[in-house]
């Protein structure tokens, strides 16, 4: 996510002009989770 909303607006307009109808967002975390399989090994 860009702090400058103008950058985001420009990217969305560019995608619209290119014919895209949707935007998919993914969410990630900078930390590793405590996965059960990793703890056991």
Automatic annotation (TrEMBL):
Q: Name one GO cellular component term.
A: peroxisome
According to UniProt, the reaction catalysed is: glycolate + O2 = glyoxylate + H2O2
Which pathway is recorded for this entry?
Photosynthesis; photorespiration; glycine from 2-phosphoglycolate: step 2/3
Keyword set, alphabetical order: Flavoprotein, FMN, Glycolate pathway
State the organism named in the record. Nymphaea colorata (pocket water lily)
* All residue ranges annotated as the FMN-dependent dehydrogenase domain in the record: 1-41
Q: Which Pfam families match?
A: FMN_dh
**Listed name of the protein:** FMN-dependent dehydrogenase domain-containing protein
UniProt-listed GO biological process terms:
oxidative photosynthetic carbon pathway
InterPro entries cross-referenced by the UniProt entry: Aldolase_TIM, FMN-dep_DH
Cofactor(s) needed: FMN
Q: Name one GO molecular function term.
A: (S)-2-hydroxy-acid oxidase activity
């Amino acid at each position: 996510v860009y702090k400058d909303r103008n950058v985001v607006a420009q990217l969305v307009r560019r995608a619209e002009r290119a014919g895209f109808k949707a935007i998919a967002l993914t969410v990630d975390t900078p930390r590793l989770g405590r996965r059960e399989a990793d703890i056991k090994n």
